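Title: [Solved] 2OG-Fe(II) oxygenase 3D structure

Original question kept below for reference.
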Amino acid sequence: MTDASAPSDFIETYDSVLDASWCAALVERFKSSGQDQPGLVGGGLMPDLKDSRDLTISGKPEWVEVENALNRAVFGGLLAYLRRYPHTLIAPLMLEVPGRDGARHRLTPERVREMSDDDLSPVVQTVFRPGAINLQRYTAGRGGYPYWHCELYPRDPRGETLHRHLLWTIYLNDGFGEGETEFLYQQRKVTPRTGSLLLAPAAFTHTHRGNRPQGGDKFIATSWVLFQRAEQLFGGG
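Solution (posted by the thread starter after getting help):
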């Protein structure tokens, strides 16, 4: 068990959230789908910033089972992340939940850590929602996302990209050189491992890049944990 009082960079990895054979099957399906497109950044197609082949599976009925499986794996990691860093959940909102006495009590870090998955899950689902999932392929020796970037971006008129709270990546393969997810200010490189999940904050504090893989293509699934919209959290139109 991790010591919650120990210093942390808020970058967490969780091994084997998905089976390696399942990941391999997904890679093969992605490769043979014929649905991938050049990867985009917020400003559009800029291969000098990001060179990848991407497939957004959210909203596509034929991919719904894959999307659900990925979201389930991420949700399990998210529960562990929230117990490690409960203020991810409770600092933005003053949440109250029913206690054993039937009265409502403010949710504290101690209570978050003690709650069962069954009790914590509906609270998390009230506050957060999953983002659209991209499958991405980075070609060996060429592909990558070398531009230092964060995940918050103010261009969207509805502010969807400003609702991003955490970023996540599930690595679908390994066996290549380099290709790490590198965080600038934390001076940390996360090495891809098949079936492992990366979770980290979405803001500028966790500016990062995707290093170029060598000796083999890199495949990932990636998205965000977003806040529910204000009308969902607080009511109103």
